[in-house]
Each structure stands twice: as C-alpha cells, then as structure tokens.
Design brief:
This is Arginase/deacetylase. The chain is an alpha/beta fold. The protein has 10 helices and 8 strands.
C-alpha cells in the first residue's frame, strides 16, 4: 500500500503583521510533533520552505505611496509562496494534499492563484472555506486603515480595484486576470459581526454581493450542522476546496494562540469539529493555517492541541 502524500509548505512570515512572532509558527508545529504524528498515521511527508532566499521577517514600516505598509516586500513574498505551491503541484501526477503553515492570511490570494493556474487546462474550479473572524475587506486608503495588507485579504482575493485593491497584487489572479474568488467559490465561516474590525460597509459589501456567510455565533450554536451546510453549498459549485484556518476565529478567552485577539465567543473544540468536517471532504486539497503566534504559547500546549486536532482530521 502506497502512503498518502502530504506536502508541508513552511511560510515563516511576519512581513504583513502588526506584531512579530508568527514567523516562528512552522518551527513550533514541528516541535509539537506535526510531521512525526502525520507519519504515524500513514502519511508520506514532504516539506518545502517558501523563503529559502529572502526572509519575510518583520521590519519597522511606514506607508508606501499607495497607502499600504511594506507593499513591495509583501507582494514579492506572496509571489514566492505562489511559486512554492505551484512547484509541488506541477511535479505531481495528481493533486497532493498540501498543509500550508502560512503564518499570515495575506497569502490566500497567492495560494488560490497557484491552484487556478495549475488547473487552467481543465474546466476544474477551486474554492475556499475562509474560517476567519474577520472578513478582511480593508483597503489602503479608507479612513482608519492601518495599511497592513493582511487586513485586505478578501479585497485581494476578489481583486476589486473599484474598492481599492492594490494593482501590485493583480498578478495573483486566475489565468484570465480576474480575482481568484467571487460570490460562488468562497464561504466565510466564523465571521465575528460584533468586531469593530468588520466595518458596516464591509458587511454591507458581503450582503450586497451575495457572499455566503456563517457567523461565529451560529457556528458556536451548531458547529457540525453549520459546517455541513457550508461544505454542501461549496461542494455544489467547485471541484477542489482549500480550507483556510485563521486561529483568531477561536475566542482568546479560551485559546489565545492567535496574533491579535478577536472576541468571537467561538470555542476551540467547536472550531476544530467544523474544520474536521471540511477536511473529510473528498474535494479538500489543502489546509492553510494562519495567525499562530508561538510567543503566546511558550510551552506549546495550545500548539500541540491544534496539531492533534489537525492530525485527527486528516486520519
């Protein structure tokens, strides 16, 4: 029997962060036994580092001319991630399962773009389940914007230039140049509508453009039911699914592993029960884990718990 392959992509990055620390996440996952535990359940494990040449480390930043912080360095880091994902896909007879320890959610457009380009010769569609407390619809020049590109992830997934998407992110697209997501290939799961980070006009944009949204409150009430509903909706529309887990979706009063806390009211067990439903789908081809800051977990107890839940979901 040939062992199933999982390709781990280490994205040691703080480049788009308000605070440093997330770049340590891939090493923390390894210390918590991720690779060994995957091998123990029968996986062949391969690893790639996205930043072998130039690191994506935190630096003191000011706004660049377009209103974003560290724009040039961040966009270059996104291209490195996209190339790393693409190299694993191009050398495989069929899509390997990729476990992307992404550090920051801003790499979602890069990940999605790699898949869209890989599938360009087919009629296959790729979608994403965006498990995140934030909708990440900020723009560089809106009032109160911090200028951090991580807060603009959905803006760049859609490449909505009318809203203020950066032109420098335009290459991280589908082969036809359009955004890697639209209302029909993304589910926002665990959105905290009480958070001030999700502005009224951001929520209005989701409503007006008919995006599929499951709030953190609804997931907490019925994590299995909401996960099955979200998955069923997306499976009807796409051929392959990327699951993106931003750990800020988990309430920090119970599990403060995320880089910046978001008081969602959503528990760790409930979140991971939903993620397990997603990863059991035959269409799931990747899991991206973002916003883990090991500085908040010096003995790696929370990281070990997260690793165990991921391994269980993949067993």
């Amino acid at each position: 029997m040939v062992a199933k392959l999982v390709n781990i992509v280490n994205v040691s990055s703080d480049i788009g962060s308000i605070y440093a620390g997330k770049s340590k996440a891939p090493a923390a996952f390894k210390s918590a036994g991720l690779q060994d535990k995957l091998r123990a359940i029968g996986y062949q494990v391969e690893e790639q580092d996205a930043f072998q040449q130039s690191p994506a480390e935190w630096v003191s930043s000011t706004r660049e001319p377009n209103g974003a912080r560290n724009e040039a360095r961040t966009v270059e880091a996104c291209h490195q991630v996209s190339k790393t994902i693409a190299s694993a896909l191009d050398g495989a007879d069929r899509l390997p399962f990729q476990l992307i320890l992404a550090g920051e959610c801003l790499y979602c457009p890069a990940i999605m773009s790699a898949y869209w380009h890989h599938l360009s010769s087919t009629s296959k569609r790729v979608g994403i389940i965006y498990v995140d407390a934030d909708c990440d619809l900020h723009t560089p020049t809106e009032p109160g914007s911090s200028g951090t590109i991580a807060g603009m992830t959905l803006t760049h997934l859609t490449l909505d230039f009318a809203r203020g998407a950066l032109e420098s992110m335009s290459a991280l697209s589908r082969p036809d140049g359009t955004g890697v997501v639209d209302k029909d290939n993304i589910v926002l799961f665990g959105l905290n509508t009480d958070s001030e980070a999700n502005k009224r006009d951001h929520l209005g944009y989701l409503f007006d453009n008919e995006f599929r949204v499951f709030t953190s409150r609804s997931v907490q009430r019925d994590p299995i039911g909401r996960a099955k509903a979200a998955l069923s909706w997306l499976e009807e529309r796409v051929d392959h699914i990327i699951v993106h887990l931003d750990v800020d979706v988990i309430d920090p009063g119970q599990f403060p592993l995320c880089n910046v806390p978001n008081w969602t009211g959503l528990g760790f067990e409930e979140t991971m029960a939903a993620v397990k439903i997603f990863l059991k789908s035959d269409k799931a081809v990747a899991l991206s884990v973002a916003e883990v800051n090991p500085d908040h977990d010096p003995r790696l107890k929370m990281t070990e718990s997260l690793v165990d839940k991921i391994v269980d979901a993949l067993s």
